[in-house]
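> call design_seq(struct)
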């Protein structure tokens, strides 16, 4: 069975977009598990359990992302997409009901300044819709070649985004260093 016969264009788009978001989000969270634990603690999970749960969040995101690329036909993958969306919406609901500003940590340190709330609730239909698109739009497993190309494309895109961010940070640091050197010229000698 060819990839086009196994998956509609809508299903391929849903699998790629949601897979990319989850892969990026999960990999960003792995870098700083303490921030994920802090978010879980702020949601009301005891500190002891928040530390234990923290690694499970990025692990589940990356696992579902890989499922979206390599096994979008799997009911586990489809339910996983809807369940993660439900968990995110529930976290947003807790923040709204408690009227608390809880750091999202959605994309790790890259999501600095983001907070849980109405946004996660409003996106729930997109998560469930994506799972339904996969359920009805995928008739069988995609070819390994198709899955590998989609995964590689997303991995290259994430790497390129991180490289651009690193380049900007290096450029800004260089500018700061030059500015500091110029400032020292104007300081009176001791």
């Amino acid at each position: 069975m060819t990839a086009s016969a196994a998956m509609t264009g809508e299903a391929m788009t849903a699998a790629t977009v949601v897979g990319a978001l989850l892969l990026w989000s999960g990999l960003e969270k792995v870098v700083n598990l303490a921030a994920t634990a802090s978010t879980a603690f702020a949601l009301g999970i005891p500190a002891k359990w928040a530390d234990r749960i923290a690694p499970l969040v990025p692990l589940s995101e990356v696992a579902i992302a890989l499922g979206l690329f390599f096994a979008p036909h799997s009911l586990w993958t489809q339910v996983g997409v809807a369940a993660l969306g439900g968990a995110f919406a529930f976290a947003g609901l807790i923040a709204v009901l408690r009227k608390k500003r809880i750091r999202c940590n959605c994309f790790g340190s890259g999501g600095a300044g983001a907070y849980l709330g109405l946004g996660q609730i409003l996106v729930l239909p997109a998560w469930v819709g994506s799972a339904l698109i996969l359920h009805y739009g995928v008739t069988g497993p995609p070819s390994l070649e198709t899955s590998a190309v989609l995964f590689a494309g997303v991995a290259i895109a994430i790497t390129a985004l991180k490289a651009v961010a690193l380049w900007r940070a290096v450029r800004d640091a260089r500018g700061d260093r030059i500015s500091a050197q110029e400032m020292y010229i104007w300081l009176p000698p001791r």
